[in-house]
């Protein structure tokens, strides 16, 4: 049985296919995110710093941020809700050096506790990526397939709830 928190908390399955981590990604709001970190909506109102490890600035990455539980964990009918999409991030840099395709929108969990997922893909080539016409019902797998990104090379998630949260996913 896997002890991988992405598997245990069904991020792999609901959002991503199984993958082998081969890159380093750090996500920092006021503190660095680790799998399962609990944050309030207020704490994630502003975009985080997303850093890609490495030194080869010729290697580019695409970064996707989605809510796996929109609008509620018990009925995620808008899964996945796209919060942010950045392409062409050079290795060893942060997302500010990339091409923002969909601007950051802080997670708003109306009910329950939501898994917010950051997925990183290594790009084979620099290419034009078009913003989807919607944020709800985005599909990370379909997006990666359409743009030939392959499997993710890194992923992390945090749990988000409103300030006076109640109900939803059990820990």
From TrEMBL:
Concerning Gene3D superfamilies, the annotation shows: PEBP-like
Q: Which InterPro entries match?
A: PEBP, PEBP-like_sf, PEBP_euk
In terms of CDD domains, this protein maps to: PEBP_euk
Superkingdom of origin: Eukaryota
Q: Which Pfam families match?
A: PBP
**This chain belongs to which protein, by name?**
FT3
Which source organism? Tulipa gesneriana
Species lineage, top-down? Eukaryota, Viridiplantae, Streptophyta, Embryophyta, Tracheophyta
């Amino acid at each position: 049985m896997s002890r991988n928190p992405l598997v245990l908390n069904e991020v792999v399955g609901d959002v991503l296919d199984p993958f082998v981590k081969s890159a380093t990604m750090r996500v920092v709001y006021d503190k660095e995110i680790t799998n399962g970190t609990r944050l309030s909506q207020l704490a994630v109102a502003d975009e985080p710093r997303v850093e890609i490890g490495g030194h080869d600035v010729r290697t580019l990455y695409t970064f996707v941020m989605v809510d796996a539980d929109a609008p509620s964990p018990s009925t995620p009918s808008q899964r996945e809700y796209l919060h942010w999409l950045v392409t062409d991030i050079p290795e060893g840099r942060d997302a500010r050096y990339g091409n923002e395709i969909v601007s950051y929108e802080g997670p708003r969990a109306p009910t329950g506790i939501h898994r917010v997922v950051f997925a990183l893909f290594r790009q084979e080539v620099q290419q034009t990526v078009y913003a989807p016409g919607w944020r709800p019902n985005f599909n990370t797998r379909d997006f990666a397939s359409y743009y030939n990104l392959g499997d993710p090379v890194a992923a992390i998630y945090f749990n988000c709830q409103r300030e006076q949260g109640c109900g939803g996913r059990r820990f």
